[in-house]
Amino acid sequence: MASPYGNVDRNKEGERERLYNPYQDLQVPIHTLYRLPTSPEFLFQEESVAQRRSWGENLTYYTGCGYLSGAISGAGKGLFDGIKAREEGDTLKLRVNRILNASGHTGRKFGNRLGVIGLLYAGIESSIVAVRDTDDVFNSVLAGLGTGALFKAASGPRSAAVAGAIGGLAVGVAVAGKQALKRY
User: Where in the sequence is the signal peptide annotated (predicted)?
Assistant: First the structure.
């Protein structure tokens, strides 16, 4: 029920009670009060020209995405390992503890590995972009090659070469898939 004093409602006892409306005296529609810009805002005009994240943003993004996806997939694998490792006569509390321990251990291990891979990839890609002064598919594939080789460098030259080839192919497939999705 409307009144000149604002909205009126009845409380539990049936008495009339006025509800507070902070916008009642404003003579403008509420949606025009908070007109927020829809375009990105930049401090300097040069920032609006660049269509690429900075090296620090890339580093944070790839490392964070790598760690998160590795932790989630590792926790899933640990869940199945914990379920498979059950023994006859285990109590429910012991089974849950085994699953949580396996999920946490495998999730941390996978998360750390993929986080380091993301860190290496972002650093190598940003370095290649800075040296070549262009941003194209070739940079991404080279960064994948370098990341795979550097990640497995301690395992020997053969393992590093195989991991580099796998990294380059994986990035090449990812970039080609992204381009195909953009086109269609």
Answer: none
